[in-house]
Write a structure and sequence with these properties.
- By secondary structure, the chain is an all-beta fold.
- The chain has strands at 15-17, 27-30, 37-43, 52-57, 70-75, 81-87, 93-99, 108-113, 117-121, 133-136, 142-148, 157-162, 167-173, 179-181, 186-187, 193-199, 208-213, 219-224, 236-238, 253-259, 268-273, 279-282, 292-296, 304-310, 319-324, 332-335, 347-351, 360-363, 372-377, 382-386, 391-393, 404-406, 413-417, 424-429, 435-441, 446-448, 455-461, 467-472.
- The strands form 10 sheets. Strands 11, 12, 13, 14 and 15 form a 5-stranded antiparallel sheet that branches. A 4-stranded antiparallel sheet has the order 2-30-29-28, with no helix packed on it.
- Strand 8 and strand 9 (117-121) form a beta hairpin.
- Residues 405-471 form the Secretion system C-terminal sorting domain.
């Protein structure tokens, strides 16, 4: 049921570090999403090593079911996207995430909707998605959906909420796309379960659940007792202390997420209150009362919509990004993080285009080693992204006969050819700027890349400083 409002990284010789962090103006990916784009996620959906995007609309249409869309945006690795439509058969899509639920091809798309309950689309071998598979059509008011390995069997499980049923449920996966309903994480209240997120909040290596409620505007933690049970069985126990008791008169929780906000090695909880304007983080400890810390208030963004915890400036500390759910304040801002401390009290702008940023993602969309921002504009039915110019890859322009690497993408070996007589001294950098492979290559010799993980890499000739991107798959 819909209840929401409409150390600095260096790539040696292969990149340029700007003196100040800036983001480009918005670059439109999809100028016409369909009415009311609402849900947004990112991940490698086609298994080619770069980050794609997926969006779902929620067109309430006065309570009359209308056409809603799921679209995904295929990335070419440099931040250029092709628009692909998956489905327009669902309506009132209120949950969206991506995860690898069958171990094949790319990440799969998981959704909740009033028409189909909890369902998914599997990525396939031809770079698209198979028809919808329904997991549970009986959920009353399905909403937020997240995925993770709840029972630590190596397979992806799914958690979602049922607002009308007042419960948070989970389904164990078998790694082949088959899911089985398990005992509920929580149920029996009449508080209107609203949001859920997963994180290891007690440090025992299994995933716990953070749950929020509409009618009380409260936040609770439910601990996964997988390890505590001693029998590799999953059960759930509520923390003795409520994270935040809320107030239906003064609060409207619009988003809850998790992350290490104060960079002390422990996972914290962040809530976004669209009514009071407060974005708050809680430094939690099991069965101990949480202390709220305000990150942003109504004087900065009056109607905040979404928050993400991520290292946006590559200094090794997580920052907190917040978006405007209205059209008056700066659209997306970030608060710089610090070690063992709350984020800065001063906000830095990322974007200001007054599109009502209901949802956004932070990910490296152009494979240059820094995190970019992509968002949906609920006011103008668009998808767009902002390039983080913290790191600019200095890929040399050179004639094709100077140096050629192939095949690209590569699976086992890279072959070098072109007009060079000396030994090539090459270094391979991952997306974080770490050297993962170095070797000397004579003309006609190959470079063994079989041990590299799938992804995008930079290869540099240390003699000439020439660089090239290549994909390992």
């Amino acid at each position: 049921m819909k209840l929401k409002l409409l150390s600095l990284l260096t790539l040696i010789g292969a990149c340029t570090l700007l003196n100040a962090q800036t983001f480009t103006d918005f670059q439109v990916i999809d100028p016409n999403t369909g009415n009311e784009p609402y849900e947004f996620a990112s991940g490698d959906l086609d298994g080619d090593g770069d980050i794609d995007l997926v969006m779902a609309t929620y067109d309430y249409n006065g309570g009359v079911p209308a056409t809603d869309y799921i679209k995904w945006y295929k990335n070419d690795g440099s931040g250029n996207f092709a628009v692909e439509t998956i489905s327009s058969a669902l309506y009132w899509i209120d949950g969206l995430t991506v995860a690898d639920i069958d171990g094949q091809y790319g990440l799969d798309i998981i959704v909740t909707s009033a028409s189909h309950g909890l369902a998914y689309f599997l990525s396939n071998a031809v770079g698209s998605f198979d028809p919808i598979v329904v997991i549970d059509a009986t959920l009353g008011g399905p909403g937020e959906v997240v995925a993770g390995d709840i029972n630590l069997d190596g397979d992806m499980d799914i958690v979602t909420i049922a607002f009308n049923d007042n419960k948070t449920v989970w389904y164990s996966g078998n790694g082949s796309g088959v899911f089985m309903a398990q005992p509920d994480i929580e149920n029996g209240t009449t508080n209107g379960t609203l949001f859920v997120d997963l994180a290891d909040l007690d440090g025992d290596s299994d995933l716990d659940a953070v749950v929020t409620y509409y009618y009380t505007q409260s936040i609770e933690i439910y601990y996964n007792q997988f390890f505590e049970s001693g029998s590799t069985a999953v059960s759930w126990i509520k923390d003795d202390e409520t994270v935040d008791s809320g107030s239906i008169a003064a609060n409207y929780i619009f988003n809850v997420t998790t992350g290490d906000v104060n960079n002390d090695g422990k996972i914290d909880i962040v809530s976004v209150d669209n009514l009071s304007g407060d974005v708050t983080w809680y430094d939690t400890e099991k069965d101990v009362a949480s202390t709220p810390h305000i990150i942003s208030d109504e004087t900065i963004i009056d109607r905040p919509a979404f928050a993400v915890v991520a290292d946006i400036n590559n200094d090794g500390n997580n920052d907190v990004l917040v978006s405007d759910g209205g059209s008056v304040d700066v659209a997306i801002i970030y608060f710089e993080g610090a070690a063992n401390a709350s984020p800065s009290a001063t906000a830095d702008p990322i974007a200001d285009n007054n599109f009502q940023m209901i949802d956004f993602i932070v990910d490296d969309l152009d494979a240059d080693g820094d995190k970019d921002v992509a968002s949906i504009g609920n006011f103008n039915d668009t998808v767009f992204w902002f390039e983080n110019e913290l790191i600019t890859l200095g890929v040399s322009e050179f004639e094709v006969n100077d140096l050629i690497i192939h095949p690209n993408p590569a699976t086992d070996k890279l072959t070098f050819s072109g007009n060079f007589n000396d030994i090539l001294e090459v270094s391979v950098y991952d997306a974080l700027g770490h050297v993962v492979l170095s070797n000397k290559i004579a003309a006609g010799e190959d470079l063994d890349v079989s041990q590299l993980s799938d992804g995008i890499y930079i290869i540099k000739d240390n003699n000439s400083n020439m660089t090239r991107k290549f994909i390992k798959q």
